[in-house]
Write a structure and sequence with these properties.
15% strand, alpha+beta, DUF6086 family protein, 5 helices, 117 residues, DUF6086
């Protein structure tokens, strides 16, 4: 069994239950901490849709917003943002955010080959 993360009809990630649950719970916590809607929409307990405008805005605020200048903050969100950017890239959403993701390039390159669809 696994979680499913979709953009429209495209599955952009299908991690194991434990990894999917951790991602969803982390998304919720980070959204609350910065006061931004995450754009992660539950379709079922293990199926989520990434909203094509809200999710990129959320990831942008985490990875590139004003608080991203804090070293500890950046360390805490770095892996999460890289995973999110790979999903956005696969789903063809947030091209401005994905295009600005140079600082996450190394992590994204590793994750592309390890994130099952």
């Amino acid at each position: 069994m696994s979680y499913i993360f979709d953009v429209g009809d495209e599955t952009v990630w299908s991690p194991s239950l434990s990894v999917g649950r951790l991602y969803v719970e982390t998304t919720e916590a980070m959204g609350l901490s910065i006061g931004v809607s995450t754009g992660l929409i539950a379709e079922a307990s293990d199926m989520y849709e990434l909203h094509p405008q809200q999710f990129p805005a959320f990831v942008y605020e985490l990875g590139f917003g004003s608080t991203s200048k804090h070293e500890v903050y950046r360390s805490l969100v770095r892996g999460f943002v890289a995973v999110s950017l790979v999903m956005m890239e696969r789903g063809g959403i947030g091209p401005d955010v994905v295009g600005a993701a140079g600082q996450y390039g190394a992590e994204m390159a590793l994750l592309r080959n390890t994130m099952p669809r």
